[in-house]
Amino acid sequence: MDDAHTPLDEMPPVTAWLSDMDGVLVKENRALPGAQQFLDALKRKEMPFLVLTNNSIFTNRDLSARLRRSGLSVPEERIWTSANATAAFLSQQSPASTAYVIGEAGLTTALHGAGYVMTDQDPEYVVLGETRTYDFNTLTRAIRLIEAGAKFIATNPDVTGPSDEGTLPATGSVAAMIRAATGRTPYFVGKPNPVMIRAGLNRIGAHSEAAAMVGDRMDTDIQAGVEAGLRTHLVLSGSTTLEEVETFPFRPFGIHEGVGELIELVEAQR
Fold first, then answer.
1. 216 catalytic, yes or no?
2. pLDDT, tens digit, for every residue of 95-131?
3. C-alpha distances in Å from residue 177, one per residue of 100, 142, 190, 234
4. Cβ distance 99 to 118 under 8 Å?
5. What is the pTM of this model?
6. Which residues lie below 8 Å from residue 89, measured CB to CB, with a gap of 6+?
7. Distance between CA atoms of 106 and 57, rounded to whole angstroms?
8. Is 221 a catalytic residue?
9. C-beta atoms surrounding 187 within 10 Å
10. Which residue among 3, 22, 62, 164 is the active-site one?
11. I need a surface site. Which of 158, 211, 217, 247 has the fewest CB within 10 A?
């Protein structure tokens, strides 16, 4: 649709791409039009890329398999989750430390891979991620550990998530409950925190001034990309409508009906 403000010939070429997953490449477990062709173009041009998601439940291998069932080919090393970003952040902050973890395999696998030990005895961190099995005893233990001095980290701030039956409470909602009980606000690593974007760029050896971010949400994907200094592209195939864009105090570099409209841009680079 519209490609923005600064003339292309005054900007460095885009040599790396980050793309949100849901609403950009897939929707309700179906590949969106142009998604595989967009990925094929990135591979053909040998551009490093990552597919991002704030969901911390699944491992990269699980998500790669899910995408394959949707008709998309994305190797697990090209997936970057809020769990991956949290593990990278913690290993930088306090290498090979300890954490009490509330979450699923995606989070525990990432933290184990970063050399973290899971414990409920005097951990340095309490790490909250997405899970479908929150229980009173686990949350009570987390609250008491935070009260005792553990630092509070959460993978992402999303307050709700979708399901076939309707809305589900997500990490942000549970974090709010723990915050209300302890008076301690968590540090959220996932989008819109640009920490997740910068860690992903480090993972693929890319620099923000030559990277682009594709997303379907202004308040997470585009905000994170803007704050990290990337060229941002909003697609209207997910959560945000064109009318809603005007309600935000920042704008994406480009607005497109779907990710298929970016293929020509990828082909024109390098």
1. no
2. 999 999 999 999 999 999 999 999 999 999 999 999 9
3. 17, 11, 19, 32
4. yes
5. 0.92
6. 153, 189, 195, 199
7. 5
8. no
9. 14
10. 22
11. 247
